[in-house]
Amino acid sequence: MADTTPLLIVAGTLAILLLIQQWLAQVSKRAKAAKIDAKTEQAEGKPLLKGLSVMGLDERGISSLRTLMKDTDSIPLATFLAFNQPIVQELDRYLQHLFTQFRNAPDAVTAASLPAPPAGMRIDALSTTERNLLLNRNPNQPRHINRALMARFGGHAFLAHFSLYNSRDCAVTLHVPPFDAQRQLFETLAKSGIASRGRQIPLQQRLSVLKMQELRRMSKDLKLAQKFTRKADATEALSQIPGAAVLLSMQYVIDDLFMLNPLDVDPHAIEQEWAWLVASAKLLGSIPPRRTSLS
Q1: 258 - beta bridge partners?
Q2: What is the pLDDT of residue 34?
Q3: How many domains would you assign to the chain?
Q4: Taking residues 98-121, what's their average pLDDT?
């Protein structure tokens, strides 16, 4: 009688392979279905509030957004929008419609003459200046304010650091002692390279912190025969003389000197974009409390 063991082994192996093939087919089908669902959700967005959907946030981010929308202060919400750049789809379409239909419109355009925003938002909650910002800026144009820029300006404390930067001239040496209220802001900007500090500042620029009378006194102490009438001439000449840095350090602690550096982006463009973000946040936060739910 022939031994059937090899045949049984082959048959068993084929059966196992068939089962594995069927299992892999099911796994592949589920993966494709999940991928389709993810794409659909990505295209349609996730529910934010009744009448609003959002893209680009996970559930934790959506929860944070809902909370910030209830805050009467628009700055935290504007900071969140700048940092995370979510797309609230209905608001995005509304802002795009305003830009397309009303850009360059005269200042006479009133809130009553504009189409109603979605989800109960109130366009009349905005000032004329804020409405004009929304009318004249394409919401889909490239952003200057992103995570990378905000990280250089203190992250979520972006507004305080940028406001300081925007209020001062670049390439001017400033004396900021430890007790100064803005010292911590300057230190943050120095760490990120937005400002130079101490010896990072060329000696000629460091000397500019001195008054003209102090520069003349230093010139006399260093036995310079030249008489100076212009500060730029004095700092340039003194920066070439050994001992000038030592005399300067006797009047100012070197690490108390800061100088703001120029940005690659026009600060005015950043300022305008921030104002637009605040206006958008104010509109998004104008939804009446009774409607800030999914039901």
Answers
A1: 174, 197
A2: 47
A3: 2
A4: 88
Percent of the chain with pLDDT over 90: 75
Q: Same domain for 65 and 139?
A: yes
| Statement: residue 91 has pLDDT above 70 | yes
In a domain, 21, yes or no: no
Whether residue 166 is contained in a domain is answered as no
Helical spans, DSSP H, in the chain: 5-44, 59-69, 74-84, 89-102, 128-135, 147-152, 158-167, 183-191, 203-207, 212-221, 231-238, 244-249, 267-284
Question: For the CA atoms of the chain, what is the radius of gyration?
Answer: 31
| CA distance linking residue 77 with residue 91, whole number of Å | 14
Tokens of 117: 């925003």
Q: 30: pLDDT confidence band, cut at 50, 70 and 90?
A: low
- Contacts for 30 with CB less than 8 Å, ≥ 6 apart: none
Judge residue 201's burial from the number of C-beta atoms within 10 Å of its C-beta, 0-12 exposed, 13-18 middle, 19 or more buried. Answer: buried
Q: What is the pLDDT of residue 21?
A: 82
Residue 26 confidence (pLDDT) above 90: no
Residue 72 structural domain: 48-148+272-291
